[in-house]
Amino acid sequence: MLFEILRHDGPGRITRVRIGSKTFETPNLIFYFFDSLLPPPLQVQIITVHEGEILPCIEGKFKLVPLMSPLAFDLDEAIEYGLGLEADVLIAPSPPIRGPSEMTALLLGELLESAKALKSAVREMPVAIPIYYLPSKSLRRDFLSEVRKLGFKFYVIKGLEEAFRNPRDLVAFLYEVDHFIGPDALLYASGRIPPSHYLHLVYLGIDFFDTSFIIDATLRNMYFFNGAWYQFSAIKELPCFCEACLRLKESSQNSDERLRLLLNHNTLSALSILKNAFLVIRHSRLRESVEETCHHSPELAALLRILDRDAYPLLEKYTPVSSKAKLYCIGPESYHKPSIERFRTRIATRYTPPKEVTAVLLLPCSAKKPYSSSPSHKLFRKTIIEAGVKGLCEGIISSPLGLVPRELEEVYPAAHYDVPVTGDWDQEEVRIAAECIAKYLDKFPRNCPIIAHLDGGYLQACRKASEISGREIIYTEVEGSLTSPSSLSSLRSTLSRISHQKCQEIDRLKEAFRKTADYQFGPGAGEKLAPDSTTVKVKARKEKLLYDGEVLLAQISPLTGFVVPSLEGGDRIARLSHWVIFKGDSINGSSLMVPGIEDADPQIRPGDVVFILDSSKQLIGIGEAVLNGEEMVKLRRGVAVKLKHTRRRDEP
C-alpha cells in the first residue's frame, strides 16, 4: 500500500492511496456491506465486507475485510476467509475491549500479538490494526506506544463515538494518536460516527468513515439533509433532487425498494460532506467550513473551542503559513484560528523594534489592506509628516489579530483577513487585543512615549493594555471620527511635542525586510539578511527588492508579504532555520520529493520558504514547503518542496 499527501489545511488532508492496481483519494466513505437488500450506491468506492452474499455490483471496489474475532482456530483459516472475499486490506481481529484495567491490558497485548502474526503471514497484503479509544489515558498511551513500534500504515479507530460525550478527552485522544502514530498512516474512524461530525474529524486528521450510523438511521426511517436528520414519514415535500429522492417522490415503491432508495440518498448526502471537504481543503477553507458547522449543535461548538485551546500545537504544525484565499473571521469561533494564533505568537516572540525609536503611535486598523493604502492611514501618514516626527514606530490595533507592527502589515494574514465591521467589540476581542498590545509595549524602553489615536473598542483595548503593562499612554482628543480635522489636529499637536528629540528617520522599507525575515525564520535573520550596507529598490507594481550593491538578495512576495531570498541572500541565513538536508549533491526539476530528504527542520510549516542544503551543508536550492518538517522526514512518498531557485553544480 502506498499513499501520499496531496494537500493540507490544518491536520485535514487530501491523500492519494494506491493498493495494487486500484487508486482512490481520501477523505472517503466506507460502505458497511452486510446484506444483499442494501447494496452500496454506485458512487461508493470502498466497502467493508462481512460474511454474506457478495453482489456483482461491488466488483472493482476496494474491499476491507475484518477478520473474525477472536481469531479463527488457526491463522491460515482466518487468512483464507479474507482472501476468499477478495480482500484488498485485511483488518486484524478487533475483540471488544471491556472490563478492569488488568483485563483490558491483557486483551490489548493479545491483539498486538495477533496483529504481528497476521502482518508477518501476509507480507504482500496491507493489514490494518485496530486502536481503541480508552478512558484510561495511561492504558491507551502505552498501547499506542507499542503499536507505533510495529510500523503499520493503516489504523482502524474503535469506540470513538464514546468520546463524543467528553469532547476534551476526544481531542486529547486524537492528539495522542498524532503524537504516537505520526503522519505516515491512514486513519479510519470506525463505528457510529454521525455525518454532522465528519468535517470536525477530518480537520483532526481522520481519513475514513463508514456508513454504520447511516444504515442504522435509515432502518429507523430517518432522512439526512443539510447536516440534520428528519423522520422520513413526517416530510411533506423532499428538499433534495437526487435520483433517489426523485424516485422516492413516486408512490409506487414497496417497503424494500423505499428503504434502498432512502439508504442511497442518505449515503450520498453523507458522502457529499466528504466531497465538500475535498473542495474546501483545495481552496484552503476547511477551517471556515468547520466554524460554520459549529452552529449545527452546541456539541460541535464546544469541540472546536476545546480543540483551539488544548490542541493548538497539533493544528498549527499542519496549518499552512499562507493562503491564496481571504481569511474570514466572522465571530468568536474565528478568534483562535491557528493562523491567527500563530501570528500573535510570532509577534510576541520574534518581533523586535527598530534600533532608534522616538515614540510609539497606536492606530486603528482599516477595512482596506494593507492598512497604509487606506484613506484613513494616508491621512495619518500626512499628519505624522506635518508634525515632523522621526523615528516613530507604529502599531496597528486589530481584532482578531491583536496588534500588527507597521513593518509587518503586508505579511499574511495581516493583509489578507476580513471581519464584519460593527464598531462594537465583545469582551474576548478586547482581552485578546489588550494582551497583544501589552506584549508589544513591553518591547520598548520605559521612557519611550506611547501615543494612542483611537476610539471605540480600540480605545477600550488600549486602556486595558495600559493596566496590564503599567505603561502610561498619551491619548489624543477625538471629536467625531478619528480622521476629522479636529482629531487630526490633536494628533499633530501631540506628536509635535516629541519632535524636538534628535533621531534618524527609520528606513521603513529595509525594516520591512528585516522584521519579515525575523517573523519567518526567527530573531536575528533580518540583520543577517539586510545589514546597513543593503538598499531597497521599489520597481513597477510596487515590487520591493533588497540589494547589496548590484547583488539581489531577496524580494517581498506580493501575494503573501513574505521574504523570498535569492541564492545569494539564502547563503546568509540558510543555516539558521528552515533547512532541508538533501541526500545528493545537486537537484534538478521543479520539485524535491520526500525520498530525497535526509533531514528537515521541525519548525517548517506548509508554505514556508525553505533552504535546500547538501550533505556538506552548502545551499543548493530554495523552495516552498508542501509538507511540514516532520512529514518530510517520516513520509515515504510525495512532493516535499516546490523549487524556486536551484544552484548548478558548477556555480560557486
Helices and strands in order, then pairings?
Elements: E1 2-9, E2 12-19, E3 22-26, E4 28-33, E5 46-49, E6 62-66, H1 75-84, E7 89-91, H2 101-121, E8 127-132, H3 137-150, E9 154-158, H4 167-181, E10 186-189, H5 198-203, E11 208-210, H6 212-219, E12 222-225, E13 228-231, H7 243-248, H8 255-282, H9 286-293, H10 298-310, H11 312-318, E14 327-328, H12 338-350, E15 359-364, H13 375-387, E16 392-398, E17 402-405, E18 417-418, H14 427-441, E19 450-452, H15 456-469, E20 474-475, H16 485-496, H17 508-521, H18 525-529, E21 535-539, E22 543-548, E23 551-556, E24 563-565, H19 567-573, E25 579-582, E26 591-593, E27 597-600, E28 609-613, E29 619-625, H20 629-634, E30 639-646
Parallel strand pairs: 4-5, 4-11, 5-6, 6-7, 7-8, 8-9, 9-10, 10-11, 14-18, 15-16, 15-19, 19-20, 25-28
Antiparallel strand pairs: 1-2, 2-3, 12-13, 16-17, 21-22, 22-23, 23-24, 25-27, 26-30, 28-29, 29-30
Helix pairs in contact: 2-3, 3-4, 4-10, 6-8, 13-16, 14-15
Give an account of the 3D structure.
The structure is a single chain. By secondary structure, the chain is α/β, with parallel strands linked by helices. The chain folds into three domains: 2-308, Queuine tRNA-ribosyltransferase-like (TIM Barrel), CATH 3.20.20; 351-496, Uracil-DNA glycosylase-like (Rossmann fold, 3-Layer(aba) Sandwich); 512-646, Sulfate adenylyltransferase (Roll). It is 36% helix and 22% strand. The protein has 20 helices and 30 strands. The chain has an eight-stranded parallel β-barrel with strand order 4-5-6-7-8-9-10-11, surrounded by four helices. Strands 26-30-29-28-25-27 form a six-stranded mixed β-sheet. Strand 12 and strand 13 form a beta hairpin. Helix 13 packs parallel to helix 16 and helix 14 (427-441) packs across helix 15. The longest helix has 28 residues, at 255-282. The radius of gyration is 29 Å and the shape is globular. The model has no long low-confidence stretch (mean pLDDT 91).
